């Protein structure tokens, strides 16, 4: 009997449209011999299923069911493609754990931790994971530009602490640019992380659990045509994404080992994509995404295809893994 799979997409953040794209790719490539997929949009106003005629049906959040033509539909699993909140920060993960519906991304604590860039960095540092120098701000904190620059130097990056797709990020080259960059970041989040500039080759590393084993996918080198890997570079063609990356065998092994260590130290499962910059010959951790983009052009699907894993195989594996070993069984 086919399993009913809710493909979650949308969310409450600036990444809404990107998430819709990811969810529609999962809907397109999911194995219909095994699963009956349902596109479920998550919005601030309501959660609803969108059928093939684009009619909407409200989700009952008491048990995550939907009434279609008088029939109550329940789900065997939720495929989480919601970028940002509430899909990547632990809220949906906790909800599904409470009502005991398996979902495909990591558990709620790991999601919340990795979504908070500064908490994630603070957790990884004692394990010897190299990172940039950083300075943290909460909205309302006094801002001391001289102290910030003395800590991180120039140029530096000002980032919204809990945001994806390079929203709320600026590269600051001179002191006068710092305060406007902070104001820009506060539009996305009430917490900010300011980081030292790391020069070197930037790479993106997918780590997934596939057939019960944690594996590192072929590495992607990021060559941005802009100042850094910003929104335009990621989504509007202003970058080159080269898979496999043009790294030496030694550097390839260095970053693969580091990415696997990060994944396992944080007790991740499902998909992940982490970012690194080779600074002074050593890979430095930037951030980790637990719900990376899943469009055909996105980095993780590119890497999976290079590894000989089709999108259908990738999606089937993560669905079966979450059903066979739900979070509450661990």
Automatic annotation (TrEMBL):
GO BP term, example: regulation of cell shape
Residues where Mg(2+) 2 binds: 287, 289
Cofactor(s) needed: Mn(2+); Mg(2+)
One GO MF term attached to the UniProt entry: D-alanine-D-alanine ligase activity
Function statement: Cell wall formation.
Lineage of the organism: Bacteria, Pseudomonadati, Bacteroidota, Flavobacteriia, Flavobacteriales
Native species: Aquimarina intermedia
Keyword field contains Cytoplasm: yes
Associated pathway: Cell wall biogenesis; peptidoglycan biosynthesis
Binding of Mg(2+) 1, residues: 287
EC identifiers of the protein: 6.3.2.4
Cofactor binding description: Binds 2 magnesium or manganese ions per subunit.
Swiss-Prot/TrEMBL catalytic activity: 2 D-alanine + ATP = D-alanyl-D-alanine + ADP + phosphate + H(+)
Keyword annotations: ATP-binding, Cell shape, Cell wall biogenesis/degradation, Cytoplasm, Ligase, Magnesium, Manganese, Metal-binding, Nucleotide-binding, Peptidoglycan synthesis
Active site: 15, 165, 298
Compartments, as annotated in UniProt: Cytoplasm
UniProt gene name: ddl
EC primary class: ligase
InterPro entries (UniProt xref): ATP-grasp, ATP_grasp_subdomain_1, D-Ala_lig_Van_CS, D_ala_D_ala, Dala_Dala_lig_C, Dala_Dala_lig_N, EF_Hand_1_Ca_BS, PreATP-grasp_dom_sf
Protein name: D-alanine--D-alanine ligase
ATP-grasp domain location: 121-320
Keyword Acyltransferase: no
Family to which this protein belongs: Belongs to the D-alanine--D-alanine ligase family.
GO CC terms in record: cytoplasm
């Amino acid at each position: 009997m086919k399993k009913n799979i809710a493909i979650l997409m949308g969310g409450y953040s600036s990444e809404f449209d990107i998430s819709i794209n990811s969810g529609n790719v999962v809907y397109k490539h999911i194995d219909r011999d095994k699963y009956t997929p349902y596109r479920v949009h998550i919005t601030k106003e309501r959660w609803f299923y969108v059928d093939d005629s684009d009619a909407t049906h409200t989700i009952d959040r008491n048990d995550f069911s939907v009434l279609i033509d008088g029939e109550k539909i329940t789900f065997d699993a939720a495929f989480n493609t919601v970028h940002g909140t509430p899909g990547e920060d632990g809220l949906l993960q906790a909800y599904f754990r409470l009502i005991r519906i398996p979902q495909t991304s990591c558990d709620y604590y790991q999601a919340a931790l990795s979504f908070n860039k500064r908490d994630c960095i603070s957790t990884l540092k004692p394990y010897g994971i190299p990172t940039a120098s950083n300075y943290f701000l909460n909205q309302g904190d006094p801002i001391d530009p001289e102290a910030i620059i003395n800590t991180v130097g120039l140029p530096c990056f000002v980032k919204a602490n809990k945001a994806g797709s390079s929203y709320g990020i600026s590269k600051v080259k001179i002191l006068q640019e710092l305060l406007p960059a902070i104001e820009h970041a506060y539009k996305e989040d009430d917490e900010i992380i300011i980081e030292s500039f790391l020069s070197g080759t930037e790479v993106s590393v997918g780590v997934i659990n596939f057939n019960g084993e944690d594996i590192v996918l072929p590495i992607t080198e990021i060559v941005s045509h802009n100042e850094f890997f910003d929104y335009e570079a990621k989504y509007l063609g202003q970058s080159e994404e080269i898979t496999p990356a043009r790294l030496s065998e030694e550097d390839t092994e260095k970053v693969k080992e580091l990415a696997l260590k990060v994944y396992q130290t944080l007790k991740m499962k499902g998909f992940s994509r982490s970012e690194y910059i080779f600074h002074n010959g050593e890979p430095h951790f930037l951030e980790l995404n637990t719900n990376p983009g899943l469009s055909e052009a996105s980095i993780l699907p590119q890497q999976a295809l290079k590894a000989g894993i089709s999108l259908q195989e990738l999606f089937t594996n993560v669905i079966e893994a979450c059903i066979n070993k739900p979070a509450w069984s661990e």
